[in-house]
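pls read this protein.

:::
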Amino acid sequence: MGASPRHCSASARPLQAELEGLYASHRTALLQSASALLGCSARAEDVVQDAFLKLWENGEQLAIDDALKYLFRTVRNLCIDRLRRLALEGRYQAEDAQLAELPAPTPSPERSALGRLGWQRLVEALGELPARTREAFTMSQLEGYSQREVASHLRASPTLVHFLVRDALGHCRSHLGEWPC
């Protein structure tokens, strides 16, 4: 943390007085520069104050002419940092808004009960199918096998597997009817 004027050595006081004078005489120009970059006078005020604190901390290493350049460069750099942070925060806020619109990861108890009932009705419908049709449907639609893999397993053509799966889907749809799930 930078030293305040009360706690400085006698040799540091004239330098800090010069830095304060430099800041006071150029504060308006610094604010205008920061406002132009940030588009917000409140943010510009914060940036200019932060820049002065950096100058205060590092002022002993600078000549007074370099201090003014340092101050303007620091304001510019802090503005760029602030804009980057605001852009990043904006992206996170947009992602948060998108996530808030997603459905809850766990269904409600009512939705779970309806899902279980729907699953039971589907199992009943599959139980009514011939074994070969049921197996083609289960392998293809529930276990993720390709029609060629199912055909190889059933020792049938891929075309026949296609028809078996189509028939099973039709039967399940008609059995479920106007089921709400």
User: Anything to note?
Assistant: The chain has two domains: 5-101, 109-176. The helical segments are 12-38, 41-58, 64-101, 109-127, 131-142, 147-154, 158-176.
